[in-house]
Write a structure and sequence with these properties.
Chain lengths: ~450, ~150
């Protein structure tokens, strides 16, 4: 039964219009997305104060500190680890294990990237792996194109598995109060199945590129990749402690952000880095982008519009028999939108709607998993669907090898079927094991 | 010591010359780069050995992993294979727009500071649009040694 008090009013229209205009500015890339988010946030607070539905205090509260600080902490750990050469060592070691077999190389590199991105920022991971992948494939006399594709897509999938693997997951975990272990238990099994299925699809789609060659000598010295052995050991100690704490953070009632900064503190104590470069390399533009989005969506929430939308959803989702369909629709909608536009704004917008459903008696747990799967898998659908894709496309152009160049159309031809296949797998698993996801 | 005493006079490169001719000037004069002039003789760019080699012979992914390369990487890129094609190309494709110039009356310390600030190995001496030559770190070091050996007044 619709709540008669919840009807569209002027404040909702204004807040909604501000949100839409801000998102248009973000997605059109007329200006940098962070600048667009800041402009949108400032306008939202301004109109909110003028109309009396949104205050500066509410805007400050709307910024999810746990998400921002968790991202910051993990970025700082990666910044401190990166100069040690550990990532490069891993890439070369993994490549040598393949003994020059193109198919094995693709699977091994894809697995390495996926595992790393489960815990660390996938942008940095792909930034390091992509150029090395090009070099490794050139030495072996094979085309780097399928490997760049695989690394981008498999890193996107791997990142879905954990609370910290992907910015949308951090937002979802924070809003849904989902701990690291619960996230892993629910997401790792479907992600593993989707990952394996995607590897099969990639191996099939690129089969002509992956014929065995007669070259198996990879003349790269991985021991020289490590530029600071002591630093690497210390950095890994800090990272391992951080990951272990993630598994038990809920028992100690630690926010994930606090755990991340425990890791930062340990790394800082052990490595004693110069703070200027560490702070200088944190991606502040990403963090302010998030903050801007939180403020924008907070304004929409304060206007009551998200509550209204939530009520409409609740009319369907309250029925347990419809909850599964709602989850599936949410997954697919999230995926399609994430393929076309940035998945972060969609996630930030959906989370308060889903939270609002809980107060109306809806079991929102399966909706969180649907959202996480959708926004994660959707990233593979287009060359702009995820930052990892953009990096790999840029690397394919930068390497100067014409046959390795990934065009947007090529990505669509490969990525969209791969995304849809992943979504179908995810849907089948979601429906088949729905009680597990509730 | 002023820079005028340290400049190596060189030919300049013009449109229509080949890369081979430009690099030939650099090698014969033992300088890392020479100016590129327009029809009026004004310096509008430069040709640089390092940048030319980087652009034509060294893929970026090789640079990123230079410290781990072994001696047996034959497939990545072989400059010798490309040399014939490269050297016959017009020099215009390899011109860099940024040019560092000082006057010949500038003191050595000014020249060194500019080289350091811009992370360059050479700069051009130009007096009222008139090109005088190239100053390099090697030239400065050589002159210092000569000055000390000859007990010159610097």
């Amino acid at each position: 039964m619709p709540n008669p008090e919840l009807a569209l009013n002027a404040n909702m229209y204004i807040a909604g219009a501000t949100l839409i205009l801000a998102y248009i500015l973000i997605f059109s890339e007329v200006i940098h997305r962070t600048s667009a988010a800041i402009i949108g946030a400032v306008v939202m607070v301004g109109v909110g104060m003028f109309r009396g539905f949104y205050t500066q205090e509410q805007a400050l509260v709307a910024v999810d500190g746990n998400t921002i600080l968790l991202l910051t902490g993990m970025m700082m750990i990666v910044v401190m680890l990166r100069p040690t050469g550990g990532f490069e060592y891993l890439a070369i070691r993994i490549a040598k294990l393949s003994q020059g077999d193109p198919r094995r190389l693709l699977v091994y590199l894809g697995a390495a990237v996926s595992l790393v991105t489960m815990f660390l920022d996938n942008v940095t991971t792909v930034l390091i792996f992509a150029p090395l992948t090009v070099l490794i494939t050139r030495i072996l006399g094979i085309n780097p194109l399928p490997y760049l594709f695989a690394e981008a897509m498999l890193s996107n999938i791997g990142g879905i598995a954990t609370l910290v693997g992907d910015p949308p997951n951090i937002i979802i975990g924070s809003a849904g109060n989902i701990d690291f272990t619960t996230f892993l238990v629910h997401m790792f099994p479907p992600v593993l199945v989707i990952w394996l299925g995607t590897v099969v699809v990639i191996l099939f789609m690129f089969r002509s590129y992956l014929e065995p060659t007669d070259k198996n000598l990879l003349d790269l010295d991985e021991s020289k990749a490590i530029t600071d052995k002591t630093g690497l050991v210390k950095g890994m100690i800090a990272l391992c402690i951080t990951v272990l704490l993630f598994f038990v953070h809920h028992r100690f009632h630690f926010y994930p952000a606090y755990v991340a900064f425990i890791g930062v503190a340990i790394a800082a104590a052990l490595l004693r880095p110069d703070p200027e470069p560490v702070f200088g390399k944190v991606e502040w533009s990403v963090l302010f982008f998030f903050a801007g989005l939180f403020v924008i969506v907070g304004g929409v929430e304060a206007s009551g519009l998200l509550d209204l939308i939530g009520h409409r959803f609740a009319e369907v989702a309250q029925d347990p028999s419809q909850l599964m369909i709602t989850g599936v629709l949410l997954m697919w909608a999230a995926a399609i939108l994430s393929a076309v536009v940035d998945n972060i704004p969609f996630t930030v917008t959906m989370t308060p709607i889903i939270v609002g459903l809980e107060s109306q008696g809806v079991n929102i747990t399966p909706l969180w998993w649907a959202l996480a799967l959708g926004v994660g898998l959707g990233g593979n659908g287009s060359h702009i669907g995820a930052t990892a894709n953009v990096i790999c496309v840029a690397e394919s152009e930068r390497c100067g090898i014409p046959e390795a160049r990934i065009t947007p159309l090529m990505w669509l031809r490969i990525g969209m079927p791969t995304m849809i296949f992943g979504l179908i797998l995810a849907t089948v698993l979601y429906i088949s094991f729905f009680s597990f996801f509730t | 010591m002023i820079l005028a005493n340290l400049a190596k006079p060189t030919q300049v490169v013009k449109s229509g010359m080949t890369l081979r001719e430009a690099l030939d000037i650099c090698v014969k004069c033992d300088v890392p780069g020479v100016p590129f002039v327009d029809d009026a003789g004004e310096i509008i760019g430069r040709i640089c050995i390092r940048e030319t080699l980087r652009k034509t012979c060294i893929p970026s992914y090789v640079v990123d992993a230079a410290h781990v390369l072994g001696d047996d990487i034959h497939e990545v890129n072989i400059p010798e294979l490309h040399a014939v094609d490269l050297l016959s190309q017009p020099v215009d494709h390899f011109i860099l727009a940024t040019v560092i110039t000082v006057t010949s009356q500038s003191p050595v310390i000014k020249g060194l500071a500019i080289l350091e600030q811009l992370q360059s190995d050479y700069l051009f001496l130009v007096d009222d649009g008139d090109y005088k030559g190239v100053v390099t770190h090697m030239g400065i070091a050589q002159r210092l040694l000569e000055a000390v050996a000859g007990d010159d007044v610097i």
